[in-house]
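Tokens help. Consider this.
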Amino acid sequence: MKIIVEFDNITEPQAIALEDLFKTMEWCGNIGTSRWTSFYSDGDGNFRPKILIDGEKPKFTELIERDKLWKDNEYRIDFDAIAWKLRTNKNK
């Protein structure tokens, strides 16, 4: 599967940080390691991105309850949890 992600309305430092995040995600996959990766979304600062995924506005998943994704002020989503939910839904 391939998706095209487009960010608009970000600063140069934000673009550099996002590119580094994506490279780190790629690196983890290439060497076969599992790590949490994160990006500080400074919404009370100047972080006001406009994002498109394959030309459309992103949507929240309905596969996982929103409150299960947050611990304190950290958002963590694990694609394995989504894979299990999809597998369970297929077997119904």
Q: What stands out?
A: The first strand starts at residue 5 and ends at 8. The first helix runs from residue 12 to 31. The mean pLDDT is 96.
